[in-house]
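worker-03 picked up job from queue 'complexes'. Input manifest follows; two sequence lines, order preserved.
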Amino acid sequence: MSFELPRIPLGKGIEATLDFLVENLAFATRAFSTVADQGLRFIEATLLAVHPVLMIVIVTALVFAMTRKRGITVFTFLGLGLIWNMGLWVATVSTLSLVVVATLIAITIGIPLGIIAGLSEWVYRIVRPILDFMQTLPAFVYLIPAIPFFGLGRVAAIFATVVFSMPPAIRFTNLGIRQVPKELTECADAFGADRWQKLIKIQLPLAKTTIMGGVNQTVMLALSMVVIAAMIGAGGLGSEVWRAIQRLQSGAGFEAGIGIVILAIILDRLLQQLASKKR
Amino acid sequence: MEKIVIKNVVKIFGDHPKKALDLLLQGEPISEILNKTGNVVGVADVSFTVNEGEIVVVMGLSGSGKSTLVRCINRLFEPTAGEIYVDGQDVCQLGTKELRDFRRQKFGMVFQNFALFPHRSVINNVEFGLEVQGADKAEMRQKAETALEMVGLKGWGDKYPSELSGGMQQRVGLARALALDPDILLMDEAFSALDPLIRRDMQDELINLQQSMQKTIVFISHDLDEALKIGDRLVILKDGAVVQIGTPEEILTKPATEYVRKFVEEVDITKVLTAESVMKKCQDVAYLGSDGPNAALRKMKKNAIASLFVVKKDHSLAGIVFANEVRDLVDKGESDLSIVLHTDIQKVSPDTPASELFPIMQDMSYPVAVVNENDRLLGIIVKGLLFTAIAERGGDT
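worker-03 finished. Artifact:
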């Protein structure tokens, strides 16, 4: 005698939901498409407008101006030079543009959400499990819904990257707001500050360092995701890695990988510098 | 004039304030209420008033509800029951926006751990209250500078709080409250985090400032010495309820309960007893011009004293005469008492603390005269009297 437990149609349900969303959220996906695509084109065009050597000098000068540190400045110069030398300049610019656009979208949504979660206990209670879910779900899974929404290509890659890299922006902002000493917010209240004044004058400035830490995390996650997103047509360094894997060219694979590492280190140091800037 | 009226204020922390309130009104002790409902009674039916220009110190040990009580006054904490009137307005009835305006206009608050904003410079900290009010920039800066000057921090505006010592930080905290020129200062253990020497300085400074400002001040403290020093009146709290309300003198000399008495025992009584409280009435004086040596001698004999204070017609103190010298005058048949009048005598004001009286009285052979600002003789202090007063009120120490 066989007794079969009816299978809960979780997958089917999700599929149906996605189908429904694809059909009914067309306006939103189109808006997202436009923003992402235009942003991407613009940044890419700007970065490629000048000759790589000149660009390397400009970026190096910028890094020095922002950090005033010799180590990272020299590293930037040599690192970017190496990338150019390996013939990965265009791919790197493409990856960087993707990261920048995805990060910008992620933090424009993530920071306000984090602020709301930091100020409201019940919003936090709803947001927290969603964040846990988002961060434990394997990164590849995000690629799947991206395709029906946006088709193969860079916009789908950006979408998956945004979803994947947003949680730290929300989490850190929430944490930063909550970490503001209670006596300081109480003091602001005692002097008759309204909610907005309290947020702008006290809570956000004091949470700034933590929020910047979240932005840093978001950038790093975005960078790691664009490689995976090469599977759905992100292009850039990621697709170089994929091509190398498929052709078993370990050398080329490592070269692209090193390119990503160089990009990551420069971005990380720059953002850390921004975060630690006093007042 | 009554500035703040606090009427039957109760503050209960927890999920069932209503139930806890009922129990409290039935007279359950708060430890029982905690057992039964899990709710903490912070303030249990407190009533008192604060008059305009008065410093009232709310005193109690930690957990006595004093900080909770002061936060009820400007509704940083929502009172569970009771009424709080400031200038006749029931604070508890104010809506969100009205409350905000009320806080901006009426209250300046100073916090135990300073609560300075670390990301703002000293001057920006002081400006905070004005900035929140939307004050004009130039006016704001000028008021903030004035406030900084008042607390002795002129020229420190560009520093950041972390660059300042604890004492200076609290001066900034005080300046931030003063910059608004509020009617009422709420000071929550304002000096408790400072080390003793700095604390004493700040207390003196507050007393000095208060002489020119005449603010209404509610000062929270766990330190009885501090309370007695700066308070016009004290409200002593225990377990959220008032144990005694009174002037420093009343608290010291007539402690209402054993609890207050225990507190008082630890106070250095010589700092708080004043000349006024230990002096006695002068039984008799000689009047300059109308009393001759004979009359003066008779008065001394009658009261069995060896010296006699002499006052002028307008009752101001002229000096003192001594029995042996007056007898010489009588023997010589002189009629003018002023020949033996000593005018360079030691006088003290009524608020001179007993501790300062000791060195003065050390090697004096006659009583100290206590005079008011018009030099009128209010009373005298003899050495024995001082010791008796201290022994009586200082308990068994």
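worker-03 released lock.
Chain A has a mean pLDDT of 89.
Residues 195-228 of chain A form the longest helix (34 residues).
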